[in-house]
Every structure is written in structure tokens, then in C-alpha cells.
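Researcher: Sequence recovery benchmark, item below. Answer with residues only.
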């Protein structure tokens, strides 16, 4: 029997009922973010968890930081400008957040494990803020982690040594461990705070 043209079709009713059940099962949808940066909330498979070591040799994963937002940045300690700028801004963000700054954990993932020893990483990150944590691992583990975040980087010979060219986004997880946004390198600390407050 065909559906009466004036009535909703059975197919439409079933689709609507299914959508309602799905929303009910998943809970309310996240409010849309209004960002200066890039909304990553609806990009499944982007980023995800990581498994890297802190300067004490302790393996760290995203679950270690549940309950706090996490700002993740990839770089190297001998970086002449991009990395110091990003970490200086991260320290400013924590200050501008006031009391909420305690709810933001900053993680710095080295792209240069050959030179960024645990001691070097610790001294570097703590020079910006004592709460910052440096993370490292094998070259393969770091490459896999960077690939998950679409981080582009490459060793570039300079005389008898090398530097590393790399992309410069900062990635932000919410307190439930969901990747929500990327902060552009050119954003001001105040703009970053506007973005991050939406997920705290």
C-alpha cells in the first residue's frame, strides 16, 4: 500500500524515530564551537591517543590527564623561533585563564629525540612553566604520533648539524579526552583563551 501524500511516509517516520533514538543514546550533541582556531570535534580518526615517555621515563597516555584540558604541541628544543613562541603563548594562556589555568595541562612532544634527552626536555619545558611536561619516544613512535595529528616535519641539514622544519598548530583536548580544536600559530593568547574556555 502506498503512503497517503498528505501523511508522513512510513520510511520517514522510521528514519525520524531512529535518529531520535540515536540522539537519546548518545546524549545531547555538543554545542557548536565558535573558534578563532580550527574545530576538530567532528573529525574522527584525527589525533587520538598517544603513548610517549616523560623525562622521568614514565609512559604517558591521554588517560593520565583526564579531568583537565590538554594543549599538545610538537617541536624541538633547539627551535629558534616557532617553539619558544608557542610555549611562551601557552604560559600566557594559563595565566589569562586565571584559576582555570590549573585545569589546562601543556604537553610538548619533541620531534628531535636524538638531541632532546630527558634532562634537556625537562629544563626546556620548565623554563616556560613548571607544570609543562615534555614527551619523547623512539623515532618510530614519535613519527606515528605526529602522523596521527597530520604534523608535517623534516630534518634539514645546516652545515655540520641540522634543524627541523615542522608545522605549528597546537592541539587541544577537552577534559574527557576528546580532541576538540587546533590553535593557529598566529592566534593571540587572548584569542586562544576565548577558544579554550568553550571546552573547560
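Model:
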Amino acid at each position: 500500500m502506498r503512503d497517503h501524500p498528505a501523511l508522513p511516509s512510513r520510511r520517514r517516520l522510521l528514519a525520524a524515530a531512529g535518529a531520535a533514538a540515536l540522539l537519546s543514546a548518545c546524549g545531547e550533541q555538543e554545542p557548536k564551537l565558535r573558534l578563532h582556531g580550527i574545530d576538530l570535534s567532528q573529525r574522527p580518526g584525527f589525533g587520538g591517543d598517544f603513548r610517549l615517555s616523560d623525562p622521568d621515563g614514565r609512559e604517558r597516555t591521554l588517560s593520565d590527564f583526564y579531568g583537565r584540558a590538554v594543549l599538545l604541541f610538537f617541536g624541538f628544543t633547539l627551535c629558534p623561533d616557532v617553539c619558544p613562541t608557542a610555549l611562551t603563548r601557552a604560559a600566557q594562556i594559563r595565566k589569562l585563564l586565571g584559576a582555570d589555568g590549573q585545569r589546562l595541562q601543556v604537553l610538548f612532544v619533541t620531534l628531535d629525540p636524538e638531541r632532546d634527552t630527558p634532562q634537556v626536555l625537562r629544563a626546556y619545558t620548565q623554563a616556560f612553566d613548571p607544570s609543562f611536561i615534555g614527551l619523547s619516544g623512539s623515532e618510530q613512535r614519535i613519527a606515528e604520533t605526529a602522523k596521527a595529528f597530520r604534523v608535517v616535519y623534516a630534518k634539514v641539514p645546516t652545515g655540520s648539524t641540522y634543524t627541523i622544519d615542522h608545522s605549528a598548530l597546537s592541539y587541544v583536548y577537552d577534559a574527557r579526552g576528546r580532541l576538540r580544536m587546533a590553535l593557529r600559530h598566529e592566534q593571540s593568547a587572548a584569542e586562544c583563551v576565548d577558544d579554550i574556555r568553550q571546552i573547560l
